[in-house]
Every structure is written in C-alpha cells, then in structure tokens.
Design a protein that fits this description.
By secondary structure, this protein is an all-alpha fold. The chain is built from 16 helices and four strands. The chain has a two-stranded antiparallel sheet with strand order 1-4. A hairpin with a 2-residue loop joins β2 (about 410) and β3. α5 (about 155-170) packs antiparallel against α16 (about 430-455), α9 (about 245-260) packs antiparallel against α11 (about 285-330) and α11 packs across α16. The longest helix is centred in the C-terminal third of the chain and has 47 residues, at about 285-330. The two termini are about 70 Å apart. Mean pLDDT is about 75; it is low at about 5-10, about 35-60, about 95-100, about 105-115 and about 120-145.
C-alpha cells in the first residue's frame, strides 16, 4: 500500500483521516495474516488468477483524526476530493483492495452456510449452563444428547415403579403407613358393634361406619392432591404409604426359616400376625398351608389389587382399595359377633378385588401351567364362601399344584371349607413359591404398563 502525498501540498484533516483509515485497515490485515488460527483463503485468493476481494473492517472507535475531520466539515464544509494520482500499470497479480464500507456476507463467505447471521426474534436461543452445556427443563421433550429426568414423573407406571422400589428397600414403620389404621378401625368397631344391640342395629352400624371412614379418607387425599396441583411427588409419597408388600413378604420368609430350622412354636407365633385363625394346634403341613394362603391373599389384596386400582383411578382409587382391605381385617365377618356388622365390608371387598382377580388370571398364563389355573379358579369361585377369594386361591393353588383351604379354627369354632387348588399337600417350600407367584404377576403388570405408557 502506498500514499501519494506531495510535499508542497499542506496536509488537511480529510487527508489525515483518509491516511488513518488506510493505516488501520493495513494493521487489521496484518493481524489476520499473522494469526495461526485464521484461514488462509485470502492468500489463496490473492495467488489465484481470478482473485477474491477480502474486506477487513477497521476499528470502529473514533480517533483524533475523525474528530478533527468532523470539526473541519462543520466549519468549512466538505472539502473537495483530491484528484486521484496516476496509478502505475497493474501487475499480473493484483493486491487485495481495502474499503471502508462493509461487503456483503456472500463476498466474504462464498459458501452458503458459513456466513454469520443474527438469530431472528422468534428463534429461541438455548440457555447455557456454567459448564457450557445446553440447559433443559422437565417439560421439554427428550432429545438426543439430553437426559430428561422429568420423564420419571411423567408416567404413572414410572411413579409406581419408584414407589415399589422405595417401599421394598426402606423399612418404614407400619404406624406411619395406611395399614397403621388397623388398630383404630378395630377400636371403632368395638364401640359401635356392642353385644347388647340387635342384628339390625349392627348391620346399620356396619354400613355407616365404613362409609364415613371411606368418605373422610377420600376427601383428605383428594384435597391434598388438588391443593398440590396433582403433583407427581404427592402420588409417589401416597403410594409408598399405601402399598403393602414388604411386611407379608418378609413375614413369609421368617415363617419359612423358623419352620425349616425346626422351631414350630416360633413359626406359629409369626404366622398368627398374618392370619385371623388360631395357629396353636397347626401341624407343620398346616402351618405351610396357612402360610401359603396368607401370602397369596395378603400380597394380592394389599399390593397387586392396589396396583390395578391405581392404574384405574389414581391414588384415590388405590387408597379406596387399601382402606377396604384394612377394614376387611378389622371387621371380619368370620369373627364372633361380626357376622352382621362385617357383611357390608365383606361385599365391598369382594367387589373391589374382582377386577384385579381377572387381571391376575391373565398373567397366570405365564406360569408353568398356563391353562390349569382356569379350572382351579372356576372351582374356587363356585364352591368357596367368598367367591372372588376362592377364585384367587384356586387359581394360584392349581398353578402350583398344591391343595389349599380345608378346616380351620376361629375363636375355638371349627369352620370347614372346601379344598381348592391342586393335588399335593404344601410343604415349607410352597409358601415361598406362592409368594413369588403373586409377586411375579405384579411385576409383569408393572413392566407391561411401563412399556405401554412409554410407547403410547
């Protein structure tokens, strides 16, 4: 670059500003050429036969020459442009020219996608975290490269799976769980179901007390759910307190260990916390049979049926199912003096477990005997005093090919019930097989619901 300035001609402010702009442009080109990270496309363009015009913007900060030039224009007006000096003959390869006006991005970036552009106002710029990664929220869809943990609380099946895991791992005391209301329900039944009252009064009390309990609990749960905006965290906490798998599962294992080690008295005492019958006169085979029935019905009604009703109606339906299940133990019609008082809860319980029993029949097809359990379910539903309970016991017993039901003692009174299930008498291993059978069906239901929820 050369500046043709005659020594006899005085240097005006305009010439000084023009010279400053040229110097700044030349300095910017020199920085770019010395930058090791800069592209050498300008050098290649200068060496090519066609040549490429590269524009380098000078520093936008005003200099002292610009200020002097503006004051000169305001005082004397715009000066006349000096005549352009005669240019020497153009060499074979022209040097890159520098202009004070910005060129079009297509001139600087001849390719289509490399030219920088400002984002449109409608385009949302993703937020960046402190580490430079793109941030995301729980309500954003799951995209490649992102881990959206909010999906864990978007599907009821995933909430239920997390609640089942926590309920099985964390040993929460039963006093803070929903089953902790069993002593409360038993005390209320003693106050309203007094021996001196007639059968009609007992039946009326057995109808009103469960209705009041159910309406109160459902109102509390729905109010909590509504005030929280139907938050998934509330559903998770409620299901942890409602599900009942850990206690019957652990107690069945304890009965098996005591019986396997020869401690029959200890096994009877442990079994008495799961059943209402008398266990003091049970033989080892009788202990195994009673433990099988208790494991099947306690896990089915307190865990499997609660899962089914949660998918049907949410946490309100799950609380309804578990509350009726607890009242069926507190107001059991098989106990002395509870026949009229507990008849309403007995009917409620049979109605509530019918749909879960049908679902259980479907998942028992994945057992070793996929068809035989249907015959056992039909026989139990026909002959057992509680039809749906007989259907469940008959189906699981036939699937395991063990004989269930038969005579048992309730408060010194023998009650003879028809035999259900298979042909062989249960042994100490049978109670573990029965527990695992119901648990397997529940886990299969959970997996199927997760797959359906994530795909649809």
């Amino acid at each position: 670059m050369s500046l043709n300035i005659s020594p006899s001609t005085p240097l005006s402010a305009a010439d000084a500003a023009h010279a400053a702009q040229g110097i700044f442009a030349y300095a910017g080109d020199l920085v770019i050429s010395l930058n090791p990270f800069a592209s050498d496309s300008s050098a290649d363009g200068a060496a090519s036969s066609t040549g490429t015009a590269v524009t380098v913007m000078a520093n936008d900060q005003p200099s002292i020459f610009d200020q002097e030039f503006k004051r000169f224009e305001q005082k004397h007006g715009a000066p006349a442009q000096p005549a352009a000096p005669a240019q020497p003959a153009a060499p074979a390869q022209s040097a890159p020219s520098y202009h004070s006006e910005p060129a079009h991005p297509k001139d600087v970036y001849p390719w289509d996608d490399a030219a920088p552009r400002e984002p449109a106002p409608s385009e949302a710029v993703p937020a960046r975290t402190a580490h430079g990664s793109t941030g995301f929220g729980f309500d954003q869809p799951l995209m490649a490269g992102d881990v959206n943990v909010g999906i864990l609380f978007s599907e009821p099946s995933l909430i239920l799976a997390l609640a089942i895991i926590i309920e099985m791992i964390i040993p929460l005391p039963r006093s803070i769980r929903l089953y902790g209301l069993l002593p409360v329900f038993t005390g209320l039944s003693r106050k309203v179901n007094r021996p001196g009252r007639s059968e009609t009064q007992r039946s009326f009390a057995g109808f009103m007390l469960p209705v009041i309990i159910l309406l109160t609990l459902l109102f509390l749960v729905f109010t909590l759910d509504a005030f929280s905006g139907f938050d998934s965290i509330i559903s998770l906490v409620v299901m942890i307190l409602v599900l009942e798998l850990k206690f019957p599962q652990d107690r069945t294992i304890d009965v098996y260990r005591a019986l396997h080690e020869g401690f029959k008295e200890k096994s009877r005492d442990l079994l008495s916390t799961m059943v209402l019958r008398e266990t003091g006169m049970l033989s080892p085979m009788g202990i195994s049979k009673a433990a099988c029935e208790a494991a099947i019905m306690r896990i089915f009604t307190g865990w499997f049926a609660v899962i089914v009703w949660y998918f049907i109606g949410g946490i309100e339906a799950a609380v309804l199912m578990q509350t009726i299940n607890i009242m069926s133990h507190a107001f059991n019609y098989k106990l002395r003096g509870n026949h009229a008082f507990g008849s309403t809860v007995y009917r409620m319980h049979q109605i509530m477990i019918f749909i879960p029993a049908v679902v259980l029949m479907a998942f028992l097809f994945f057992s070793r005997n996929p068809v035989r359990h249907l015959a056992g379910a039909a026989e139990g539903m026909k002959t057992f005093p509680a039809p749906v309970t007989g259907m469940v016991l008959g189906a699981v017993g036939a699937s395991l090919n063990i004989s269930l039901s038969g005579p048992r003692y309730y408060q010194g009174v023998v009650m003879r019930l028809p035999k259900l299930g298979g042909e062989h008498d249960p042994d100490e291993q049978s109670m573990l097989h029965a527990m695992r059978k119901i648990r397997m069906c529940g886990l299969l239901l959970l997996v199927a619901s997760i797959l359906i929820g994530l795909n649809f």
